[in-house]
Inverse folding.
């Protein structure tokens, strides 16, 4: 809608009044506190793990550059990413203040499975946001404003589903419904053509909105229960990293299947890729028995409220 009003720059310009409003509301409403006394010891910047940050950024950058244009003559970028990742892990294991505490993964198979599940779920989610939106414009022939309007049911449904289910502690059932929702929506996408009716386009976004509202909270709750209590912050950060990796893979897949333009055959090829990932998401969820320990019991409202750490990771 913003692009239709004033071009793509409008989507960035919108952040300026929002930021100014944030500063104003913060100055008026946040409680005023005196600045803390400067602690003894090294300056804050001195404790930053700058080499770890650089290695982590180098790993993702090399991987992203390869995925943007995957070719045999660019395999050196994958090798560079692998080397940077290995050095990063060794560096972080020895650092007294690691940038990312990779020890959170040690021996905690349920937590690693949750990160894998997050990556798979977000590959499908971002493929819809990137690929389906492009197809609406180039394959279906809609304007940017109309394509944007057709995304509103997706997010409205996601918000409604999250509000309705957010307080329920049953994680496994949410993830199963989310995976089935992704598979159902992908099947609907396979029936698209250049003259598909608007009601079908809306129905697809509504179906995709259901897993959108279920997945994020369920994955977060999984991490809070599966992570060691003293490493919850690092574990939550790695969950976001898994999501960003899913976005990178979705962006690369969109570029591959929409090599020339976002036409209907390319959308169908992208959908088969999404369907494969969604089936893997469902399979990983069904095979993960640790999720039974995460879900709370209706008879015990406090069940599942305390992080379990490694008790389910052995």
């Amino acid at each position: 809608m913003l692009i239709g009003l004033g071009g793509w720059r409008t989507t960035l310009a919108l952040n300026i009044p929002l930021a100014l409003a944030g500063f104003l509301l913060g100055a008026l409403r946040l409680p005023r506190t005196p600045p803390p006394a400067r602690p003894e010891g090294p300056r804050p910047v001195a404790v930053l793990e700058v080499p770890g940050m650089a290695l982590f950024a180098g790993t993702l950058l090399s991987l992203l550059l390869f995925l943007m244009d995957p070719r045999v003559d660019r395999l050196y970028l994958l090798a560079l990413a692998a080397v940077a990742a290995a050095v990063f892990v060794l560096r972080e294991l020895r650092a007294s203040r690691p940038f990312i505490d990779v020890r959170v993964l040690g021996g905690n198979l349920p937590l690693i499975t949750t990160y894998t599940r997050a990556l798979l779920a977000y590959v499908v989610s971002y493929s819809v946001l990137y690929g389906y939106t492009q197809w609406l414009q180039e394959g279906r022939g809609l304007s940017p404003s109309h394509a944007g309007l057709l995304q509103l049911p997706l997010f409205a449904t996601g918000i409604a589903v999250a509000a309705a289910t957010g307080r329920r502690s049953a994680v496994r059932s949410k993830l199963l419904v989310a995976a089935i929702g992704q598979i159902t929506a992908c099947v609907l996408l396979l029936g698209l053509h250049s003259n598909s009716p608007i009601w079908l386009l809306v129905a697809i976004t509504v179906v995709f909105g259901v897993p959108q509202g279920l997945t994020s909270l369920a994955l977060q709750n999984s991490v809070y229960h599966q992570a060691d209590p003293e490493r919850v912050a690092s574990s939550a950060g790695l969950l976001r990293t898994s999501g960003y990796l899913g976005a990178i893979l979705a962006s690369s897949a969109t570029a591959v299947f929409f090599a020339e333009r976002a036409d209907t055959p390319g959308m169908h090829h992208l959908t088969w890729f999404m369907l494969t990932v969604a089936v893997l998401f469902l399979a990983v969820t069904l095979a993960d028995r640790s999720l039974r320990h995460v879900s709370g019991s209706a008879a015990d409202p406090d069940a599942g409220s305390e992080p379990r750490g490694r008790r389910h990771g052995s």
